[in-house]
Amino acid sequence: MYQLYDESRDKRYPLTGIIKEIGRTSECDIVLADDDKVSRVHARLDWDGSSWVIVDLGSTNGTFVNGEQVTEKTLAPGDIVEIGDTRLRYLPLIVSDEAERKKTTKITTEPRGALDSGKDQTVSRIFSQGRTVSKKKQ
Question: Domains of the chain by range and CATH?
Answer without folding.
Answer: 2-92 (2.60.200.20)
